[in-house]
Design a protein that fits this description.
The protein has helices at residues 2-21, 24-31, 49-57, 69-81, 87-99, 103-112, 119-129, 139-168. By secondary structure, it is mainly α.
Length: 171
């Protein structure tokens, strides 16, 4: 862990040194988002302390023209995977969940539903069911609220009805 802290320290020192070498105009352009900052090494120039600090930081420091291939692949996958889900599937899910009376059945249905995979999908389903959720809630918490707001409520109502029937029976 200490090694990583040293690397970050070197990078921050290099960053500070590079900031000091900027002119006022360059600095203002960078702050306003109009300028870009790129660390490059020129073969005909002597090695600067900034360049040495950056290149010694990590082999993961790359020029802007060489983006990480892993990130590019992740972006491609994400764009391919995000296909709009038809409202009819969500309507069908709401109807099924509202008819279930067992929490386990609801949990199994949600687990097997292929159109429910992301937090946004569960948020959308909860909204259609009229279940309030907070943005800070995790996906598993939203799933539990959906289960309790549908099959859980019915299971509780059935149990209360049974208790009331038993109370009415003569003893």
């Amino acid at each position: 862990m200490r090694h990583r802290k040293d690397e970050w320290g070197q990078l921050l020192i290099a960053f500070g040194m590079a900031l000091q070498q900027l002119s006022h105009e360059e600095y203002e352009q960078l702050v306003q988002g109009k300028g870009r900052w790129r660390f490059t090494s020129e073969p005909d120039q002597p090695s600067s302390p900034v360049h040495e600090a950056i290149t010694s930081f990590s082999p993961a420091v790359r020029p802007l023209s060489d983006p990480l291939p892993e990130l590019q692949e992740q972006r491609k996958k994400a764009s391919r995977e995000k296909k709009p889900v038809d409202d009819a599937l969500f309507q069908e899910s709401t109807q099924v969940l509202l008819q279930l009376t067992n929490r386990e059945e609801a949990r199994n249905y949600i687990a097997q539903a292929k159109h429910l995979s992301t937090k946004a999908d569960y948020e959308r389903l909860a909204q259609m069911l009229g279940i309030r959720i907070r943005k800070s809630e995790r996906k598993d918490e939203i799933i539990e609220k959906i289960i309790e707001g549908t099959a859980g409520l019915k299971a509780n109502a059935i149990a209360m009805e049974r208790v009331n029937v038993l109370r009415r029976l003569p003893t």
